[in-house]
Amino acid sequence: MRRAPASSASASQASAEALALGVYVKLLRAARAIDARLEPAIAAAGLTTTQFGVLEALLHKGPLTQTALGRKLLTSPGNMTDLLGKLERRGMIRREHRPGDRRAVWVELTGPGREQIGVLFPAHAKAIAAAMAGLGAADLARLAGLLRALGHGAARSAPDAGQISGGGAALAGGGSAIQLGSKSFDIE
User: What total number of domains does the chain contain?
Assistant: First the structure.
Protein backbone atom coordinates (compact mmCIF):
# COMPACT_ATOMS: atom_id res chain seq x y z
CA MET A 1 0.00 0.00 0.00
CA ARG A 2 1.34 3.36 -0.98
CA ARG A 3 1.28 6.22 1.52
CA ALA A 4 0.44 9.77 0.58
CA PRO A 5 3.40 12.10 0.83
CA ALA A 6 3.65 13.99 4.11
CA SER A 7 3.08 17.27 2.29
CA SER A 8 -0.25 15.96 0.97
CA ALA A 9 -1.39 15.01 4.48
CA SER A 10 -0.37 18.38 5.90
CA ALA A 11 -2.10 20.16 2.99
CA SER A 12 -5.25 18.18 3.71
CA GLN A 13 -5.05 19.09 7.41
CA ALA A 14 -4.49 22.76 6.54
CA SER A 15 -7.50 22.65 4.22
CA ALA A 16 -9.68 21.13 6.96
CA GLU A 17 -8.48 23.76 9.43
CA ALA A 18 -9.21 26.57 6.96
CA LEU A 19 -12.70 25.19 6.35
CA ALA A 20 -13.36 24.87 10.11
CA LEU A 21 -12.13 28.44 10.68
CA GLY A 22 -14.39 29.75 7.92
CA VAL A 23 -17.41 27.95 9.36
CA TYR A 24 -16.59 29.27 12.84
CA VAL A 25 -16.44 32.86 11.56
CA LYS A 26 -19.74 32.44 9.71
CA LEU A 27 -21.35 30.96 12.83
CA LEU A 28 -20.21 33.90 14.97
CA ARG A 29 -21.29 36.46 12.37
CA ALA A 30 -24.73 34.88 12.07
CA ALA A 31 -25.16 34.81 15.86
CA ARG A 32 -24.05 38.43 16.15
CA ALA A 33 -26.39 39.52 13.36
CA ILE A 34 -29.32 37.88 15.14
CA ASP A 35 -28.27 39.34 18.50
CA ALA A 36 -28.06 42.80 16.93
CA ARG A 37 -31.74 42.49 16.01
CA LEU A 38 -32.74 41.31 19.50
CA GLU A 39 -30.65 43.47 21.85
CA PRO A 40 -32.36 46.86 21.27
CA ALA A 41 -35.75 45.62 22.53
CA ILE A 42 -34.13 43.93 25.52
CA ALA A 43 -32.13 47.08 26.36
CA ALA A 44 -35.26 49.24 25.96
CA ALA A 45 -36.84 47.10 28.69
CA GLY A 46 -33.89 47.93 30.96
CA LEU A 47 -32.39 44.45 30.82
CA THR A 48 -29.15 42.92 29.65
CA THR A 49 -29.37 39.88 27.41
CA THR A 50 -28.24 37.66 30.30
CA GLN A 51 -30.88 39.14 32.64
CA PHE A 52 -33.46 38.50 29.93
CA GLY A 53 -32.14 34.94 29.67
CA VAL A 54 -32.68 34.40 33.41
CA LEU A 55 -36.26 35.64 33.22
CA GLU A 56 -36.96 33.57 30.09
CA ALA A 57 -35.51 30.39 31.62
CA LEU A 58 -37.62 30.84 34.76
CA LEU A 59 -40.73 31.56 32.67
CA HIS A 60 -40.36 28.35 30.67
CA LYS A 61 -38.71 26.01 33.19
CA GLY A 62 -40.18 27.25 36.46
CA PRO A 63 -38.07 27.67 39.60
CA LEU A 64 -34.46 26.57 39.13
CA THR A 65 -31.40 26.45 41.31
CA GLN A 66 -28.83 29.15 40.87
CA THR A 67 -26.40 26.46 39.62
CA ALA A 68 -28.86 25.22 36.99
CA LEU A 69 -29.42 28.78 35.75
CA GLY A 70 -25.67 29.28 35.43
CA ARG A 71 -25.41 26.13 33.31
CA LYS A 72 -28.30 27.16 31.08
CA LEU A 73 -26.88 30.64 30.53
CA LEU A 74 -23.23 29.55 30.31
CA THR A 75 -22.16 32.00 32.99
CA SER A 76 -19.89 31.71 35.99
CA PRO A 77 -21.22 31.26 39.53
CA GLY A 78 -19.83 34.67 40.54
CA ASN A 79 -21.47 36.43 37.61
CA MET A 80 -24.74 34.60 38.28
CA THR A 81 -24.74 35.75 41.91
CA ASP A 82 -24.25 39.38 40.82
CA LEU A 83 -26.84 39.10 38.06
CA LEU A 84 -29.46 37.58 40.35
CA GLY A 85 -28.76 40.21 43.00
CA LYS A 86 -29.57 42.96 40.49
CA LEU A 87 -32.79 41.24 39.38
CA GLU A 88 -33.78 40.63 42.99
CA ARG A 89 -33.24 44.30 43.93
CA ARG A 90 -35.54 45.23 41.04
CA GLY A 91 -38.18 42.86 42.37
CA MET A 92 -38.09 40.57 39.32
CA ILE A 93 -36.96 37.37 41.05
CA ARG A 94 -36.64 35.96 44.53
CA ARG A 95 -34.01 33.59 45.88
CA GLU A 96 -34.66 31.16 48.68
CA HIS A 97 -33.29 28.13 50.42
CA ARG A 98 -35.65 25.18 50.58
CA PRO A 99 -36.10 23.06 53.69
CA GLY A 100 -33.98 19.95 53.55
CA ASP A 101 -31.23 21.46 51.38
CA ARG A 102 -29.85 24.73 52.64
CA ARG A 103 -26.94 24.55 50.17
CA ALA A 104 -29.03 25.03 47.02
CA VAL A 105 -30.34 28.49 46.24
CA TRP A 106 -33.65 28.33 44.37
CA VAL A 107 -34.64 31.17 42.06
CA GLU A 108 -38.17 31.99 40.94
CA LEU A 109 -40.01 34.79 39.20
CA THR A 110 -42.00 37.30 41.21
CA GLY A 111 -45.29 38.71 39.92
CA PRO A 112 -43.60 41.77 38.35
CA GLY A 113 -40.87 39.59 36.82
CA ARG A 114 -43.44 37.19 35.35
CA GLU A 115 -45.43 40.13 33.99
CA GLN A 116 -42.40 41.75 32.32
CA ILE A 117 -41.07 38.59 30.68
CA GLY A 118 -44.63 37.61 29.73
CA VAL A 119 -44.92 40.84 27.74
CA LEU A 120 -41.40 40.75 26.29
CA PHE A 121 -41.04 37.12 25.29
CA PRO A 122 -43.69 36.86 22.53
CA ALA A 123 -42.14 39.80 20.65
CA HIS A 124 -38.68 38.32 21.24
CA ALA A 125 -39.74 34.96 19.77
CA LYS A 126 -41.20 36.75 16.71
CA ALA A 127 -37.97 38.71 16.26
CA ILE A 128 -35.94 35.48 16.34
CA ALA A 129 -38.25 33.89 13.77
CA ALA A 130 -37.95 36.98 11.55
CA ALA A 131 -34.15 36.94 11.85
CA MET A 132 -34.12 33.30 10.73
CA ALA A 133 -36.70 33.73 7.99
CA GLY A 134 -33.98 33.21 5.37
CA LEU A 135 -34.14 29.50 6.14
CA GLY A 136 -37.13 27.23 5.65
CA ALA A 137 -38.41 24.84 8.30
CA ALA A 138 -36.45 21.88 6.93
CA ASP A 139 -33.22 23.90 6.85
CA LEU A 140 -33.81 25.14 10.41
CA ALA A 141 -34.38 21.59 11.64
CA ARG A 142 -31.22 20.42 9.87
CA LEU A 143 -29.24 23.35 11.28
CA ALA A 144 -30.49 22.55 14.79
CA GLY A 145 -29.23 18.98 14.44
CA LEU A 146 -25.89 20.09 13.03
CA LEU A 147 -25.37 22.63 15.82
CA ARG A 148 -26.26 20.04 18.46
CA ALA A 149 -23.72 17.63 16.94
CA LEU A 150 -21.14 20.43 16.76
CA GLY A 151 -21.68 21.28 20.44
CA HIS A 152 -21.36 17.64 21.51
CA GLY A 153 -18.26 17.10 19.36
CA ALA A 154 -16.57 20.28 20.55
CA ALA A 155 -17.23 19.36 24.17
CA ARG A 156 -15.85 15.85 23.72
CA SER A 157 -12.63 17.14 22.17
CA ALA A 158 -12.06 19.94 24.70
CA PRO A 159 -8.67 19.80 26.47
CA ASP A 160 -10.17 19.22 29.94
CA ALA A 161 -12.92 16.84 28.81
CA GLY A 162 -10.85 13.88 29.96
CA GLN A 163 -11.24 14.85 33.62
CA ILE A 164 -14.79 13.48 33.78
CA SER A 165 -16.28 10.10 32.85
CA GLY A 166 -13.10 8.32 31.84
CA GLY A 167 -11.90 10.43 28.95
CA GLY A 168 -14.96 11.98 27.39
CA ALA A 169 -17.39 14.73 28.14
CA ALA A 170 -20.19 13.48 30.34
CA LEU A 171 -23.62 13.92 28.81
CA ALA A 172 -26.40 14.25 31.34
CA GLY A 173 -30.13 14.75 31.11
CA GLY A 174 -30.62 12.90 27.86
CA GLY A 175 -27.61 14.52 26.22
CA SER A 176 -28.59 18.11 26.96
CA ALA A 177 -25.75 18.95 29.34
CA ILE A 178 -22.03 18.55 28.90
CA GLN A 179 -19.60 18.27 31.78
CA LEU A 180 -16.14 19.73 31.07
CA GLY A 181 -13.82 19.44 34.01
CA SER A 182 -15.63 21.10 36.89
CA LYS A 183 -18.12 22.99 34.66
CA SER A 184 -21.42 21.79 33.23
CA PHE A 185 -23.17 23.40 30.27
CA ASP A 186 -26.63 22.92 28.77
CA ILE A 187 -26.38 22.67 25.00
CA GLU A 188 -29.94 22.08 23.89
Answer: 2
